[in-house]
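Re: [help] complex structure
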Amino acid sequence: MADNFEKKEIIKKSQNLSDWYTDVILKAKLADYAPVKGCMVIRPYGYALWEGIQKYLDVLIKERGVENAYFPLFIPEKFLQKEKEHVKGFAPEAAVVTIGGGEELAEKLIVRPTSETIMYEMYKQWTQSWRDLPVLINQWCNVVRWEKRTYLFLRTSEFLWQEGHCAHTNSEENTEMVLWALGAYQKTYQDLLALYGISGVKSEAEKFAGASKTYTYEMLMPDGKALQGATSHDLGQNFAKVFDWTVLGENGEKLYPWQNSWGLSTRSIGGLIMVHGDDDGLMMPPKIAPIKLVINPILGGQEAEIIALAQEIKREIEAKQSSDYPGKVEIWGSGAIAEKTFGWRMSEAELKGVPLTIALGKKEVAGTTPITIIPRLKEIGRQETGVEMVSKIIEQMLTKIQKQMLEKHKAFTEANTHEVDSYKEFREVMENKRGFIKAHWCENALCERKIKEETKATCRCRPLNDRESEGRCIYCGQKAQYRWIFAQAY
Amino acid sequence: MADNFEKKEIIKKSQNLSDWYTDVILKAKLADYAPVKGCMVIRPYGYALWEGIQKYLDVLIKERGVENAYFPLFIPEKFLQKEKEHVKGFAPEAAVVTIGGGEELAEKLIVRPTSETIMYEMYKQWTQSWRDLPVLINQWCNVVRWEKRTYLFLRTSEFLWQEGHCAHTNSEENTEMVLWALGAYQKTYQDLLALYGISGVKSEAEKFAGASKTYTYEMLMPDGKALQGATSHDLGQNFAKVFDWTVLGENGEKLYPWQNSWGLSTRSIGGLIMVHGDDDGLMMPPKIAPIKLVINPILGGQEAEIIALAQEIKREIEAKQSSDYPGKVEIWGSGAIAEKTFGWRMSEAELKGVPLTIALGKKEVAGTTPITIIPRLKEIGRQETGVEMVSKIIEQMLTKIQKQMLEKHKAFTEANTHEVDSYKEFREVMENKRGFIKAHWCENALCERKIKEETKATCRCRPLNDRESEGRCIYCGQKAQYRWIFAQAY
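Output below.
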């Protein structure tokens, strides 16, 4: 049955990843191009993914004692200019408000590209002594970094994100927080989104504009390019110093607070789409799937009985479902969708990446055929059951799928990670198969730049889990302490 | 004990409402002035209120089948200009982006003041036939309407809100949705925020720019001025027509969809603060209170035992609490707050409007004094209990407080609603006590304008629950069908 769908025509992922990506986003109604250059519209099915990410990550954030707040969208130009590296990084992509309430503004306002400057100005006002630290604040908001070309979810002028901004009395506590945030991102990606990746530290050239150190979660996409999943920045005392923010220390000294900032954006949805889907469409990890199960009735006889059985199954599942899989159970037997053929509906559920589908007809009503649960991830196999066990079986299948999807991506990443010891080999990998390259690098910015110019590969990170391993820089041959990960990046 | 606090100095509400309002917002750390003119920062304690409102209203929205989505922040100038009344209403308050990515933009972008125009452009693209309707979409976002002077929560250049935008095949279904939204707002205000108000329809002059009809929830503030709590607009086919949006109707005809939009903003928090507080500070309705109970230990002897008892109480409550009161239980016996005196802490809990407080000392540990639960709303009286009953008593007290707070505001509103039958009386009320005035009005815009010029009172609404009652217009003496509510507005 599942083999005879009238498929919605979509471009094949196996043939052209980039075209498939856009096609599946538009056809599954995750998002659309906005009439404003560089901007996108996140449609309900795509926004439900963001709501799932928010819900999951917000719990982790609050458990850590970080509270949500909201700071203004507009940042006075002079604020952005306070930190030299910071303004260099963000000014070129700024959207600038020059008119407000019908009048030319005396001071131009930047639509926030990130909120360090406006937040720290307030932190300075709110704190007098070490007792007022730590400041532990996060905000969920929109930010703008001008783009001329839209790449849905991955590169848009406006995107949604959370930005955590904390301040501490000492460096140790600050570092702890930076690494905690990185860990929370890793957990969100691996546990919720089933996306494997490498937690590491950025090179000097690739770190955040204004940071002492930037940590990152880097994932490998099916085309062998890297996607930066989220970053956590150790800002040291840099911003405190340029903002001249001091508090009274425990021993009466002037103390510049140690700061960190960390963010995860709607870009994460881009990774989710790109990694998990296949030629038939999206594939949603069960924990984030807006719809976890579609019950698709075969209409055209005994409809009332078939729908009644569908409702019984739905009730059974909803009564016993765990909070791990909050997605909806939908019966596609009424309204506009019931006008479509059974086959169209089956392929629509595939396109949308719904983890499980049940096709329901006369035989299931008669009890001559058991209820068959069809997984979107084919390799875990269909399962047959009666109504009384349906909830349990579904829970088991969802758990298996979630685990399997992460393992698949991990296996893919490992299979496409190449330890390389000569620049010739490095270039060959980049020209042919791409992927993550692990190579020794002397940490000299010149080598890093040359490698990028000659191969398109940028330094993604040094994996935190790796031990020191002496070797020779792939480019210049000088001594090198670590293998770093290089890849072409999105 | 409760009478001997060292109070944080706050301005008295009974003496100057407006100064008290700002003072209490700043001192309880709900919000602060931003370094950008007209903007505010919502601090964690204030943002928790918005999170509570979001959570409550979002459930209602989703139950109605409306889905969340996200549309761009920027609206091309020409979009706003499509609907004549709409642009007239919003252009004067626009923040305009003229530079993007370092270049002067060919077309200026308006930072959204509301999203009708950008959303409906997309709806038009997404729908071909009556089967694609209804479109039921909501978004939670920030909007900007330029203001020169900030009035925290009540009038700021940027604010947060939700905006629901639905489209239907016919007028009846459209009206149903408009009234559903109004009902959801009334429920949110009354059930969650304990704010009584009048649901009514706006006059032609006061309706939304571009709407056929605007419905509103109007509340009376302690100074006798009205606050508009939320609005729901029946847009008729106005926007569909100016956007030339048609779909194929059921009988093959060209159909202009019927539309509605509805919004509730962070302004609601302004009403919450203003109505419920008193000379001692804020007063949070239990259902929205970020902290529902403070356990305040008397430190200075047997501290370990006192803290242990506090923790036992906390555990007991958290184990049994209902989802109606999701606020935290906090023990103010460690960290920075423990450095403050007991009295300071008691008055801090009052300032923050925490519904319940327990002061805990040696006597409670010894069991010679029962645990005493002190309500912020004094008239419901303290209650004594042992640990085993503490959860139940607290739940009962919270329920009683929630109910009482709404009843108080209702009683205040009714006591300050004046049925008036002469313009002389009308002016006297406006000059002396203000409040809601219920008066006959002929529905002629000229009378409405004259009344406003001469008394500052604007037409707030015609209450939906009122029957027709013939009379003479308070201003011109012509026949009038209804009593309308007039008041000076925020």
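The two ends of chain B are 39 Å apart (CA to CA).
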